[in-house]
Structure formats: C-alpha cells, structure tokens
Write a structure and sequence with these properties.
Chain A is mainly alpha-helical. Chain A is 77% helix and 3% strand. Chain B contains nine helices and ten strands. Classes of the chains: A mainly alpha, B alpha/beta.
Chain lengths: 423, 251
C-alpha cells in the first residue's frame, strides 16, 4: 500500500516541482555560477569540476552501485580523451561537418568500445579478482601510452585546437566561458542519464548483485552479465568525461590515463560517499577544489589529501553524503538545532588539533624540503619563525595533544546529544 | 505429468561420495518432502538440482527438459526457484525492492536499462501482491537486513515464489522458529505454493506430515524409501534408520 500512495501524484504543478525541482535548481546553479565566480582561475576550476563529476559518477556505477572496486577506470577516461583529441585534429584537417559539442560522444564511444573489450575479460569474476584484473589492465594501458607514440604522443601527449572546428551558430568555443557552458550542459545531461540508470530494472539488479550475487543468480540473473553491462555503461560515461577533458585542455597526455588518475577518481567517489547517488558529485567538487587550492598554498598538499582520505575511511566511511544523510532524520524531526551547540563546542578541540597538525606538517615540510636552499626562516598564517628551532615544534605538539585530549574527553557528550536528538 | 525427474544422481567432494545414486520423480502439483538425518546430503541434493553445485554424474530434467549442467539463473528462468537454509536476501535493499528484484526477470525486464522501474506496473503490482501475501506490507520500505528472523524467513520464501516459478524448493523453511511461528509458517507455505510443485527439506516432522503428499527418506546419500506419509511412518527400514529417533525427539 505504501508504494502505491507514494507514487500517486498529489497535484500536477506541485508534483512537477517536487520531481524536477532539484534538477531545475541544479541547472540554475550551473548557469549562474560563472556570473558569481568570474575570475579565470575560478572558471578553469569549475570546468574541471564538471568533467570530474561525470567521471566520478561513472566510477560509482561500478563501486557504489554494483560493488565492483576498479583500480583502472582512468583507462576509459583517457582513451576517450585521446580519441577525442585525434578526432578534433582529423575533423579540423578534413573540414568535416561535425561540430565540437558532439565530440564527447566520440570519447564515449571509445570508452564503450574498450569497456566491452576489457569488460568481457574482467567482469567474469567479482571481488578481489576483478580489482586485480582492473589494476593490471590499467597498468598495461598506462605503460602502452608511453610506447605507442603515434596514438598517445609519448611524454608530451597529443594537442589539438578546438577553435579550428566548424562553428555552430557562430560559437567558436575559443573563450573558456563558452567551454564552461558546453561542459556544464554535458555534465547536466550525464547526471540525469546516470541517475535515470539507477531507476531502471538493470540499475536495481546492479544493487542486488552488489548486495548478494548468489541470490541474484537464483532469481534469474547472470551476475556476470549484470556486471558486464554496468562496466560498459560506466566506460561510456568515463569516455564522455575524457572527451570533455580533451576539449577543455586541448591536450591529452600519459598522466590522464595513468594509475594516479584512476586513484583520484576512486578518492573522489569515496570521499563524496559511494552509498548515495549525489556523493561522488560532492566528492568531485571538493577534491577538485582541494587539488587546485591546496596546491597553491602548500607544497605538501598531497599529504593533506591523503590524510583527508584516511580520516574519511576511518571515521566516516559513508563519505560526505553519508554524513549528510546521518543528519537528515534530525533535520526532519526538527532536533538538529539541539545538536549544533555540541558541534560548536567540538569545533574548538578540532581547530586546535588541525592547527597543530598543519604547523607540524608545514614545519617538517619546510625543514626537509626547503630549508637546505632557502634557510630555516618560514612564515605560516602570518607568524614568522625558524623551522629548525624548538618553539614551533613544541607549540605544534601542544596544540595537537590538547586538541586530541579535549576531543576524546568531549566526544561522549556529543555522541549522547546526537543519540538523544535522533531518538 | 512429471515436474522434476532425477536420474541416478551422484556427487562426490574429492574422494568422499555425498550423493550416491538418487533417482526421484515428482509429479506436477505434488508436495514432496525430503527428510533424513543430519549429513544425509539433503542440502547437497538441493544444491545439485538448483545448479549451485555441478553433478558428478546423473541427469536432471524439469518438465521433461534436460537441465543438467545449466547455471542457476538458467534453471531459474525455466521455472525452478529455491530458498536457502541460511537466510539469503538482499540485506541493504528495502523489503519491497527485494521482492521486485525477484520478479523482474520473469516479467520480461531482463537487463533493461530503458524502462523506468516505477512505471513497470506489472512488476510493481506483483511485488506488492507477494508483499501482502507474506504479511510484510508494513515493512515495505525497511532495509531487509533489519527485519526480525521470522520476517526474514518469510521474505526468503517471498523472494522464492515471487517470480512465479512452477517448481518451488524450500530448504528447511521453518528452521530456528518457535512453535507458534512454525504453525503460522506452514499456513503461509500452503498459501503461497497453491497450485505449484513443492519440494522441501524439513526437520520438523509435524510440518512434514502436515504438508507433504509424499515423503522421500534420504540416508547416506541414497533414498531408502519414498511413499505417502502414512506408509513412511510404518516403514520398518525408515524407522530403524531415522524416523524412530526423529519422532522420539519430537515428542
């Protein structure tokens, strides 16, 4: 009974707003964003975010939805990108009547093709065996990319010029803002398509295969076939992301197809949360932001990145989406406000611990990497000190220690308050 | 008309023979129980029939069609569905979703990624009907892993019968249940297997004699007797091998 009442429309406009409101909002945000963040750097970052959203969502079709841990998803992203670059050059050289906005489809076709080829091999088995095969295939293609210079262009990669293609309605896609809207449009369409996939019979059977592959076989489904089709579709969308990247950078090189790129997409999906559809979107946005911003601020940004990942795995395995969903019942019950003061209190030891950790990492980074050439004098958050003197280290240790001690002392109170609010 | 025919099945694990020449014919619409002491090979026999384990030798046919060596999903598609002794559901999916997944193939949706599942009215209606039948309508949206043990057992049966299979195999459906739950469950099994062929492994003799039209007694991988409940009860060999102790422990 509950089901029939849930799907019954209340009134048409309200129903439409309820069903499509989130999509309309998303489209509006995508359109307005470049009007708010107008700087060139912000625009570049947002373009990257759009590409990574598509990429990480495609990855989560495997990890989150079908329970397949892949270490080689960049293969389909990279191959899609390389094909798109070559396609751009060919189309420009031969003056073919194919407009730039359709190019990601070529990337998608390439991702799909190799999804079919490699999927046929790797999806025969699930679990660890699948993970190992994906790692092997990833490394194979990554090393091939340095050997097959004709297609991959070696270390330098392959370049293209997107403005050399046929213009569509007078748009040349020279300025970054035009590329932004192209990426945003593709991103929007891909999000909807991938969300729709979760609402199809196969999408649901992917979840069933993730949950209990044996039982899935006994209700009539070949788990291998379910995994294979999911893998191909994931490859297709990864290829589209690669095609968008090719348009955006006008360059594809070995880094785009490397194991490191496969690792980044795993981190994005995981940090965002693989258990919810929107998790990888948040992960892609956050990780891209961190990559761009942290690398400007500190040379040790990879270390922070790794620490965030470890913290997430240890304390919030549901990712950011999991954290949000944890608070949703409180929000619905109206008890969220009761927990907030406890979070405010906990913010104090957290800030202390974080400050101590940052000081420790930065002082160590300066001492180990820069001190030899630049001398021990360094600056952090406006304070000047020497990385080889005792005071900064003592302060760091004290902050970190006090933060941890207070945090552990106060944590039970927060836990109790949360349980009380969730009851 | 024979629904399921087993012809001289053998199964060995390494050098150890577990099933040693089992032949059996189950008629359409029959309720057939397989009983026997622990380790007799009842569950192994179920695994062989449903395709979970490969046979060492022998032949299995379903409605006259040879299904020997087919994959579990191929056997399921031909109309044989089974439950498991240890509850085997989709724990993090909603109860309703568990049932819907169980009907999708038989409703013809196969690997479709071009149907909106909310508009798959026939599949939704069928899942909803089974949900009502097994009495879990109140739990529709709850993750199946959070159900009580008895509710999970009911869901297990629901998943098994939801696809509309003609031959239903239940592996110890009432295992681990209290007396009152068992009575309720027998009524449920009777209801949901109406008009189908039922083959079940069961330890509870009350359930067996209540439900079964015929009983096979499996001892050390061989069927030593196969007859109506009344005749099985008075069968000397069966009493010696098994039933004597089983009935004693019952009462």
């Amino acid at each position: 009974m509950a089901i029939t009442t849930m799907t019954k429309p209340a009134s048409l406009p309200l129903d439409l707003a309820k069903r499509y409101g989130i999509w309309i909002l998303a489209a509006a945000v995508m359109i307005v964003l470049p009007k708010i963040f107008t700087s060139g750097a912000a625009l570049t970052t947002m373009c990257l975010m759009g590409i990574m959203i598509v990429f990480s969502l495609s990855y989560n079709m495997l990890l989150g939805q079908t329970g397949m841990l892949s270490f080689g998803h960049a293969v389909y992203y990279g191959l899609g990108g390389f094909l798109a670059v070559h396609a751009m050059n060919t189309i420009a050289a031969d003056r073919l009547p194919i407009p730039l906005p359709l190019l990601p489809l070529a990337g998608g076709a390439m991702g799909l093709l190799f999804g079919i080829i490699f999927g046929a091999v790797s999806t025969r088995r699930a679990g660890t065996v699948f993970a190992m095969i994906s790692l092997g295939l990833g490394e194979l293609i990554a090393s091939l990319s340095l050997i097959l210079r004709g297609f991959f262009g070696g270390e330098e990669g392959i370049t293209a010029n997107r403005t050399k293609m046929l213009t569509l309605f007078g748009v040349r896609f020279g300025p970054q803002i035009e590329v932004y809207y192209l990426i945003a449009a593709w991103c929007f369409v891909c999000i909807i398509a991938m969300f729709a996939f979760t609402r199809t019979p196969l999408g649901r059977m992917c979840n069933a295969v993730r949950e209990n592959p044996e039982r899935a076989e006994f209700v009539g489904y070949s788990t291998q076939m379910v995994r294979f089709i999911a893998f191909c579709i994931a490859g297709f969308f990864a290829g589209i992301a690669g095609g968008l990247a090719a348009i955006n950078f006008e360059l594809m090189n070995a880094v785009n197809i490397s194991g490191a790129q496969s690792g980044v997409v795993l981190l994005m999906a995981y940090i965002g949360g693989v258990g919810h559809f929107f998790g990888p979107i948040m992960g892609a946005v956050l990780v891209t932001l961190l990559q761009v911003m942290l690398s400007d601020i500190t040379g040790a940004w990879m270390l922070y990145f790794g620490l965030i990942f470890i913290m997430m795995v240890m304390f919030a395995p549901g990712g950011m989406a999991g954290l949000i969903m944890l608070h949703l019942p409180l929000w619905q019950r109206g008890t969220l406000l009761r927990v907030l003061p406890h979070y405010a209190v906990m913010a104090v030891p957290c800030a202390m611990g974080l400050a101590g950790l940052v000081l420790l990492i930065e002082a160590a980074h300066h001492q180990l990497v820069k001190a030899a050439s630049d001398g021990p004098a360094m600056k952090l958050a406006g304070f000047a000190f020497a990385s080889n003197a005792a005071p900064p280290w003592i302060v760091a240790a004290a902050l970190l220690g006090a933060g941890l001690w207070l945090g552990r002392r106060w944590a039970p109170r927060l836990t109790a308050a949360f349980a009380e609010a969730a009851r | 008309m024979t629904a399921l025919a087993l012809d001289d099945l053998h199964k060995s694990f390494g050098a150890t023979p577990i099933i040693r020449g089992v032949s059996l014919e189950v008629a359409k619409g029959e309720r057939h129980a397989i009983i026997g002491p622990n380790g007799a090979g009842k569950s192994t026999l179920f695994h062989l029939i449903s395709g979970r384990f490969p046979l060492s030798s022998g032949r299995i046919s379903l409605n006259g069609e040879d299904i020997t060596g087919l994959k579990p999903y191929e056997i399921n598609r031909r109309g044989l569905s089974r439950s498991f002794q240890v509850t085997n559901i989709f724990p993090r999916l909603a109860v309703f979703e568990n049932l819907r997944c169980a009907v999708l193939w038989q409703m013809g949706y196969r690997y479709s990624f071009w149907h909106n599942i909310r508009k798959a009215t026939d599949a939704n209606d069928r899942a909803e009907a089974v949900l009502q039948q097994i009495g879990l309508a109140e739990r529709a949206m709850m993750p199946a892993g959070l159900l009580t043990y008895a509710e999970q057992r009911a869901l297990e049966i629901g998943i098994t019968i939801a696809g509309g299979a003609e031959v239903v195999m239940l592996d110890e459906p009432t295992a681990g249940m209290s007396r009152s739950e068992t009575a309720h469950f027998v009524a449920l099994i009777r209801k949901v297997t109406e008009g189908r062929t039922l083959i079940m492994v069961e330890h509870d003799m009350g359930v067996v004699f209540d439900l079964a039209d015929r009983i096979s007694v499996l001892v050390y991988g061989q069927i030593i007797a196969c007859d109506t409940p009344v005749k099985i009860r008075s069968n000397k060999a069966v009493q010696e091998a098994y039933l004597g102790q089983a009935l004693e422990t019952e009462h």
